[in-house]
Amino acid sequence: MIDLDDVLTWDSWVIADHHWEHPRIREYQDRPPDHFERMRNEWIEYVGHDDVILHLGDLVCFGDIDRHPFWIEGLPGRKYLIRGNHDKHSNEWYGAAGFTVLGRGNRGFMWQAPDSRVVAFSHEPLTDPGYAGFDLNVHGHIHANDLWYGLPGHEYVNVSVEKTDYAPVRLRDVIRRPE
To answer: What average pLDDT does the structure give for the chain?
Structure first.
C-alpha cells in the first residue's frame, strides 16, 4: 500500500473527472467542443516528467474504448489514480498507461499536509459521518455543481476539470492555508 505522505508535497498536482471519450459529457457539463484536446494539452503544458499528479477518478469513460489510450498514454508525471465510478478498466490496464492505482477511495486516502491538517482525497465528496477524521476533503465527481451537503466542521474542495479550467492544479493552490 502506498503512503501518500511519501508521495505528495505542496508542489504535487491534482485533478478529477476528465471522462475522456464520454459521448455526452459536453452536453451534460456544457464543456467546450475541444475539451478533450484542451485537457490533454493543459496536462502536458503544466505537469513535468518528474512531477506527482493525483487523479481523483473518472479518467476515461464509455465512448470509443479503443481511443482511451490515445488520451492518456504518454501524459507526463508520476501518475496516481483513485478510481471513480466510471473507471471500469482493470488496474493492469491503467498501470500499462502509466498510472499507479491506489484503489476506489470510498473512504478517502488521508494525507498529513505540511500545515498539519489532515486532507482526505476521494472521488466522491465524503459526507457520511463515518468518514470523519479529516479537516479537508479534496474530491471530484460533482463536476461544475456546488456541494449541497458536507460534514459540519469540514472543508471541501472540488477539483473536477470544470472547476479548474480543464487544467491540473497544484496542491498548494487547492489546499487553502489557514489565515
So the answer is: 93
Decide which of 43 and 2 is more confident.
Answer: 43
- DSSP of the chain: ---GGGT--TT-EEEB---BT-TTHHHHHT--TTHHHHHHHHHHHH--TT-EEEE-S--B-SS-GGGHHHHHTT--SEEEEE--TT--S-HHHHHHTTEEEEE--TT-EEEE-TTS-EEEE-SS---SGGG-S-SEEEE-SSTTSPP----TT-EEEE-BGGGTTTS-EEHHHHSPPP-
Report the alpha-carbon distance of residue 16 to residue 5 in Å, rounded.
20
Q: Which three cell numbers stand for residue 149?
A: 451537503
Residue 179: its pLDDT value, please? 38
Q: Above 60 in pLDDT, residue 18?
A: yes
* pLDDT tens by residue, 91-142: 999 999 999 999 887 788 999 999 899 999 999 999 998 887 899 999 999 9
